[in-house]
Amino acid sequence: MKPLLAQATDIQDEVIDARRRLHRDPEVSFKEYRTSQFIKDILGGLGIEIIDWGGETGVVGLLRGDRPGPVVALRADIDALPIQEENECSYVSQNKGVMHACGHDVHTACLLGAARLLAENRENLKGAVKFIFQPAEEVNAGAKAMIAAGVLENPPVSAIFGLHNNPNIPSGQICLQAGGLMAAVDTTFLTIKGSGGHGAIPHRTRDPITAAAAVIQGLQNIVSRHVDPLEPLVISFGSIHGGDANNVIPEKVELKGTVRTFSPALRSQMPEQMRSVIDGIASAMRTTADFVYRQDLPPVVNPPDLVAWCRTSLEKVFGSGGIVTTAPVMGGEDFACFQEKVPGVFLFLGVGNPAKGIVHQWHHPQFNIDEDGLRFGATALAQLAVDYLDQHG
Ligand code: NI
C-alpha cells in the first residue's frame, strides 16, 4: 500500500478546495445545515453509509472495511463563530458576521480527506470507521447531544481520535502528549443585590457596584492565596451589568464568568470556595449575593497508554521529529465528553507558518491557517484508524 501521506498529497487540492468551500459558507452552532449537506454529499459519493443520528445538523458516517473487526471513531467539529471576518482571501466568508475563526473548517476538511483515504483503502480495514462530524462545539453542547443520542453505540466505538488546528505549531508537525491538554470549563452566574439611590448620597444606599468590584478582586485571592501555585486555575468574568445613569446607584449587578481547572479535586471545591468569598464580601458590604456554579465540560485528558500507541502510528506520517509537545492550554473542548465514554486521544495539528503570514490566534478576525497542514491532518486521522483496526481487529 502506498504510504497514506503520499496518497493524501495526491488529493490535497481536493482537501484544500473543501476547506475553502466550508470557509466561504460558515454557519454558527446548531445551524450548520448547508455544512451538513456538503459533508453528506461527499461521504455519499465515497460510498460511506450515513447514519441518522437524530439531530438536525451534524453528520455520522460509517465505513465498513472488507474484513470484520472493531469500530474506531474519528471526530471533527463543524461550527463557526459570530465574528466578522477581516481577511482578504478569495475564500473569505460570504456570511456577514459569521466566520470559521477557530478553524473548524480545517477539521471538517481533514476528516473528509481521511474519509476518502479510508474509503479508497477499505480492503485494508479490519473493522469499521465511524466519522463523527459534530455540530455546536463552540457552545459546549454538540458532543453532549450526540453522545446522549447514542452516536458511540450501534455499532459501539472502541476508541476515538480527534484534532484541533494550532497556529503556534508549524505545519507538518503534530502535538501528541499524555495527560491534561485542555482545561475543564465551568460557568458562573452571580447577582449582587443592594438598594439603589442617588450617587451623591451613597450612605443611604447599599451599593452593589462597589460590592461587585470588591467581589471580583476578592475572588482572585482564591487563585493567588488559596490554591497551590502549581495548580492551574483561572477565574474570569466576561460580563458585568449594572445601572444606567452615571449618578444613580442601581439595585443590582449581574455578572457572568468562567472557571478553568485541570484537577478534578480542585474543580469540585470551586463552588464552595467561591461562594464563601462572595458571601463574605457581599455581606460585609451590606449586599446579598445569588451565586450559581454550572459545570460545563470536563478537561481533555489523553490516556498515556493510548498516546504511546499513537506515537508509532503518527511517526509514519510526521517522522519522530515532527511529533512535538506543547504547554497545556486553559481553553476547553467538548471532545473531552467523548473521552469520558471511550478511550480517546486529542491532537494539535500544526497549521502555523509565519512566512505565509499565519500568525493570528483562534477567534481573531484575521485568523487563517497554512493549508499545507491539511494533508497532514487528513493523513494523521486516516493512519490512526488504519493502524488501530489493524492491531485491535
Ligand atoms: Ni475550536
SSE blueprint:
Layout lengths: L3 H7 L1 H13 L8 H13 L3 E3 L7 E6 L2 E11 L26 H17 L5 E9 L7 H7 L10 E12 L3 E2 L3 E4 L1 E10 L3 E2 L9 H19 L6 E9 L6 E2 L2 E10 L2 H21 L3 E10 L2 E3 L1 H15 L4 E2 L10 H7 L2 E9 L20 H20 L1
Parallel strand pairs: 3-4, 3-5, 5-16, 6-15
Antiparallel strand pairs: 1-2, 2-4, 6-16, 7-14, 8-12, 8-13, 9-11, 10-12
Bound molecules: nickel (II) ion.
The site of nickel (II) ion has 4 residues, from loops.
Helix count, per DSSP?
Answer: 10
Q: What are the low-pLDDT stretches, counting only 5+ consecutive residues below 50?
A: none
> What percentage of the residues does DSSP assign to strands (E)?
25-35%
Give the SSE order as H and E letters: HHHEEEHEHEEEEEHEEEHEEHEHEH
Q: What sort of overall outline do the alpha carbons produce when their principal axes are compared?
A: elongated
Describe the main β-sheet briefly.
8 strands, mixed
Fraction in helix: 25-40%
| Widest beta sheet: strand line-up | 1-2-4-3-5-16-6-15
> Which class of secondary structure composition applies to the elements?
alpha/beta
Care to describe what's here?
- 35% of the residues lie in helices and 26% in strands.
- The chain has ten helices and 16 strands.
- The strands form four sheets. An eight-stranded mixed β-sheet has the order 1-2-4-3-5-16-6-15, with helices on both faces. It has a four-stranded antiparallel β-sheet with strand order 10-12-8-13, with helices on one face. A two-stranded antiparallel ribbon has the order 7-14.
- The mean pLDDT is 97.
- Nickel (II) ion binds next to loops.
